[in-house]
Amino acid sequence: PGLNQTIAKFYPHDLRLKYYASDDYSEKFHASVKNVIEEFQGKYTGCYGCGRCGEELSGYTYVYEDGRKVFRCGRELNTIPNASIEDLTEILMLIQIQHDFFNNVGR
Question: If 72 and its partner were Cys, which of 50, 58, 60, 62 is the partner (CB 3.0–4.6 Å)?
Answer without folding.
Answer: 60
